[in-house]
Amino acid sequence: MGCAPLIEQQIAQEQKIEKERRTKYVESHPRLSATTRKDILNGIVRVGMTVDQVRAIKGTLYWESSSVFGDLKMETYKSGRTWFTFYNGKLYSSVALSYY
Q1: What secondary structure does DSSP assign to 56-72, as a single string?
Q2: Residue 76: CB partners within 8 Å, gap ≥ 6?
Q3: What contacts 87, CB < 8 A, 6 or more positions away?
Q4: For residues 4 and 23, what is the distance between their CA atoms, to the nearest angstrom?
Q5: What is the span of the domain harbouring residue 43?
């Protein structure tokens, strides 16, 4: 029999939870632009998104660091092997690390 069906069920359940989280966010934020709404529903992270929008897509973000340089507030969060850097609350960059 193997574990494949069980793993497939787990993946399907996780995808369902992710979709529900994204849909709930979009429905509770009716002023989102059509592009941002579509990106969130499709799980696409784009530069310029807010921390909450990225969190709606990726789930839990783990805070890594925060710094202030004059009027610039820089925050770094982590999700899995991806780091997200926000400047003044907007996504500036994301870096996904791969391991060999």
Answers
A1: HHH---EEEEEEEETTE
A2: 63, 64, 65, 66, 83, 84, 85, 86
A3: 72, 73, 74
A4: 28
A5: 4-96
pTM: 0.85
* Number of domains present in the structure of the chain: 1
pLDDT at 11: 84
**The amino acid at 82:** T
Residue 10's CATH number: 3.30.1450
pLDDT one-digit tens code per residue, 44-85:
999 999 999 999 999 999 999 999 999 999 999 999 899 999
List the structure tokens of 88: 């003044």
Q: Are 56 and 21 in contact (CB under 8 A)?
A: yes
Name the average pLDDT for the chain. Answer: 92
CA atoms of 75 and 57, how far apart (whole Å): 18
Tell me: pLDDT of 2 over 80: no
